[in-house]
Specification:
The complex is a heterodimer of chains A (about 110) and B (about 120).
Chain A (H helix, E strand, L loop, with lengths): L3 E2 L4 E5 L4 E7 L6 E7 L6 E7 L4 E4 L2 E6 L4 E6 L8 E8 L5 E3 L3 E6 L1
Parallel strand pairs in A: 2-11
Antiparallel strand pairs in A: 1-3, 3-8, 4-5, 4-9, 6-7, 7-8, 9-10, 9-11
Chain B lengths: L4 E3 L2 E4 L5 E6 L6 E7 L5 E8 L2 E4 L8 E4 L6 E5 L8 E8 L10 E3 L3 E5 L1
Parallel strand pairs in B: 2-11
Antiparallel strand pairs in B: 1-3, 3-8, 4-5, 4-9, 5-6, 7-8, 9-10, 9-11
The chains are: A mainly beta (about 110), B mainly beta (about 120).
Chain lengths: ~110, ~120
């Protein structure tokens, strides 16, 4: 069963605009969340993380928001750049347990 | 249609013991990748294998680590004489084609958490 869901397989955004990638989870025990980015020619690379004690974490153009009551996670990219075009995976973990990955959202930033 | 299966999900080893991590790719997938995630770090590539061949092992530590993907059976990541620094989450992924070809899906397993005590 898919405990982490990314319901949008793809997203297209104009350069300079905001990209919002969404992720939902079902397990209330998850307490650590991550976003990965994957380019076609490379393996996934870590982007940003957040623990359940926070509701927001920011790193440059990337901000992750966590809504625990809604079991919802989102990644905001502002401003979006063509180099951000990639597949984005969210992942979640509970203490002492493995990571559960979403199926990914393919982001295309149009110049 | 099972996804990428990794076992065990959690493995505890004492220093000096051997750890064997198994990965069964998705049905029909003949390309397997192993990644490691150290605490507070992102996924790092370790090795890429096809059936009976190691294609790219540029991310593998030079000593104590080895990987195989035999003609029959799962891919195995083997760590000999484990040390505390080996404690990490080890992820396997599989795909139909080479991972640099966007047309092929790239599916991760749930990982094995190795704890060395």
């Amino acid at each position: 069963d898919q405990q982490v869901k990314q319901n949008s397989p793809s997203l297209s955004v104009q350069e300079g605009r905001i990209s919002i990638l969404n992720c939902d989870y079902t397990n209330s025990m998850f307490d650590y969340f991550l976003w990965y980015k994957k380019y076609p020619a490379e393996g996934p690379t870590f982007l940003i993380s957040i623990s359940s004690i926070k509701d927001k974490n920011e790193d440059g153009r990337f901000t992750v928001f966590l809504n625990k009551s809604a079991k919802h996670l989102s990644l905001h990219i502002v401003p979006s750049q063509p180099g951000d075009s990639a597949v984005y995976f969210c992942a979640a973990s509970a203490v002492g347990n493995q990571f559960y990955f979403g199926t990914g959202t393919s982001l295309t930033v149009i110049p | 249609n099972a996804g990428v299966m990794q076992n065990p999900r959690h493995l505890v080893r004492r220093r000096g013991q051997e750890a064997r991590l198994r990965c069964s790719p998705m049905k029909g997938h003949s390309h397997v990748y192993w990644y490691r995630q150290l605490p507070e770090e992102g996924l790092k590539f370790m090795v890429y294998l096809q059936k009976e061949n190691i294609i790219d092992e540029s991310g593998m530590p030079k000593e104590r680590f080895s990987a195989e993907f035999p003609k029959e059976g799962p891919s195995i990541l083997r760590i000999q004489q484990v040390v505390r620094g080996d404690s990490a989450a080890y992820f396997c992924a599989s795909s139909l084609g080479r991972h640099w070809e966007m047309n092929y899906g790239y599916t991760f397993g749930s990982g094995t958490r190795l704890t060395v005590v």
